[in-house]
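Query structure, 373 tokens:
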């Protein structure tokens, strides 16, 4: 279960003895320490275009290295960010990052099927890991990643940025506060139009699946964090036009129903053939709605009661942006010896449900979660 009580963004004064040469508990005690260095692995749309500019908004994190299969791009990016050539790695020499004390954290921004390998290698190189969603492409991979980070005594966090986004945090708080009464139903929908059949997202070997792996994970996460319970059963149905060249290998539309112990139901959906981004919670006293719900910016929220809707502006989130909040959270967890609020175990919980969703759609039956039946 996602424990909202763990979200103490104002850090306690935990003084933990840590590796990586940082004075234990220095931030928690209000003294300045050097921001932790991130190595970005995969200089694509997310790693390069979205994440790298965010270090300007961070307090406790900085860019320390880049890892890329494209030497010219890596050189240009490193130069643009003032990194020395000794901070550039290829996939072939990535393991030598162990000798770079400037890189405390490896941020894996690669195609999904590469997450497990680079997370495990990073942990073995003595680095903490931020891994993008989905954590990997199977439960077995997620378990191996957690084991590797545990064995190396390194932190593992998943890039679930919505846990640092002001609208989603306020929606969770409102749901827990009972503003909508007892939660009866949550509806979540995420999708975008995937136009180019050559993209890795449409190749099973690299993506592990289709819209569910990419966008559906936002629908799944939102259902879990809005309801605040773990689902006990899932029933899924896939609708894909396999004649469409984009969908020869992976699914387009998939919908699934989650049953929760309290009796709440979540109707979730994802697709690669329409744009949508929506979360709606219905309780016996009212509703909480986000649309768009999980975008990088421009999210909006309403609460409703007795047919009246009120638009809400949330208080600021924990960082200047959700991305900065996410990056700094892991850095602070490392310094203060705490577990990230979205740890590897959280990614594993989602992957168990994702496997059950695919199995339910394949076998045409309800899958009980937490059992092998
Ligand atoms: P891109 O295709 O834009 O970038 C992926 C990068 O990975 C490439 O640029 C390349 O970098 C590297 N790479 C290494 N091997 C391959 C390969 N065989 N095929 C393609 N790329 C390869 O993808 P995104 O940046 O959009 O996605 C990366 C990860 O980030 C995914 O797991 C995705 O789910 C996640 N993501 C998360 C988002 C969020 O909001 N949390 C948003 C978008 C994506 P190089 O040339 O430097 O080697």
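Result returned for the query:
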């Amino acid at each position: 279960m996602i424990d909202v009580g763990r979200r103490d963004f104002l850090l306690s004064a935990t003084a933990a003895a840590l590796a990586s040469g940082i004075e234990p508990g220095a931030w928690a005690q209000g003294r300045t320490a050097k921001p932790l260095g991130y190595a970005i692995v995969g200089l694509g749309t997310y790693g390069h275009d979205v994440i790298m500019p965010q270090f300007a908004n961070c307090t406790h994190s900085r860019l320390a290295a880049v890892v890329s299969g494209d030497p010219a791009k890596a050189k240009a990016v490193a130069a643009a960010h003032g990194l020395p050539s000794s901070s550039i790695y290829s996939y072939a020499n990535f393991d030598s990052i162990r000798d770079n004390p400037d890189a405390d954290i490896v941020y894996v921004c690669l195609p999904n099927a590469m997450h497990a390998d680079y997370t495990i290698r990073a942990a073995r190189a003595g680095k903490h890991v931020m891994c993008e969603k989905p954590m990997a492409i199977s439960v077995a991979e997620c378990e191996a990643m957690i084991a590797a980070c545990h064995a190396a005594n390194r932190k593992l966090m998943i890039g679930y940025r919505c846990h640092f986004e002001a609208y989603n945090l306020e929606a969770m708080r409102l749901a827990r506060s009972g503003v909508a009464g007892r939660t009866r139903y949550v509806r979540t929908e995420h999708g975008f139009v995937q136009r180019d059949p050559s993209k890795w997202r449409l190749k099973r070997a690299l993506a592990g699946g289709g819209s569910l792996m990419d966008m559906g994970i936002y629908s799944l996460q939102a259902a879990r964090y809005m309801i605040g319970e773990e689902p006990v059963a899932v029933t899924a149905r896939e609708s894909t036009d396999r004649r469409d060249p984009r969908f020869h290998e992976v699914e387009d539309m998939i919908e699934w129903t989650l049953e929760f112990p309290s009796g709440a139901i979540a109707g979730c959906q994802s697709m690669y053939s329409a744009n949508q981004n929506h979360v709606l919670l219905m309780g016996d006293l009212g509703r909480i709605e986000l649309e768009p719900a999980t975008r990088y910016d421009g999210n909006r929220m309403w609460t409703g009661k007795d047919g009246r809707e009120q638009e809400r502006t949330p208080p600021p989130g924990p960082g200047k942006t959700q991305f900065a909040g996410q990056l700094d959270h892991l850095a602070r967890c490392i310094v203060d010896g705490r577990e990230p609020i979205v740890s590897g175990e959280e990614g594993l919980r989602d992957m168990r449900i994702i496997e059950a969703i695919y199995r339910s759609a394949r076998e045409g039956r309800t899958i009980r979660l937490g059992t092998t039946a």
